Amino acid sequence: MASVTVSVSSPLRVFAGSAAELALHADTLRGALAEIARLDPRLYRAVCDETGRVRRHVNVYVNDDHVSERGGLDATLAPGDVITLLPAVSGG
Question: pLDDT tens, 19-69?
Fold first, then answer.
C-alpha cells in the first residue's frame, strides 16, 4: 500500500483533532477515505455523506489534480501522494 499524506484544511481541522496532516496507507482514494473513517470518524462524516460519496461542498485533490480528473474515488494513489480536503468557501 502507498504511504500518502492527507492535508486537512483549516475549516475541517475541528473534526480532526486540530491535525493539519494525517499519514495513511492506501492504494486508492476510496481506501484512504475508508482509513479516515476508521481512524477519525468525525472527519470522515464531515467529508463524506452517509452513502460514502464526498459531500457536494467538499473538494478533494490528489496532488494538484481535482479527484474528478483522476477517476473519482477509484483514483490510484502512489507513495508520496498528497490528498487535500478543502471545503468550498463562500461569502463576501
Answer: 999 999 999 999 999 999 999 999 999 999 999 999 999 999 999 999 999
Residue ranges per domain, the chain? 3-87
- b/e 39-66 (16+ beta carbons within 10 angstroms → b): ebeebbebbbeeeeebeeebbbbbeeee
CATH hierarchy code of domain 3-87: 3.10.20.30
The distance of Cα 17 from the centroid of its chain, to the nearest Å, equals 15
Cβ proximity of 49 and 57 under 8 Å: no
pLDDT-derived band at 92 (thresholds 50, 70, 90) equals low
- Helix (H) or strand (E) segment spanning residue 8: strand 3-8
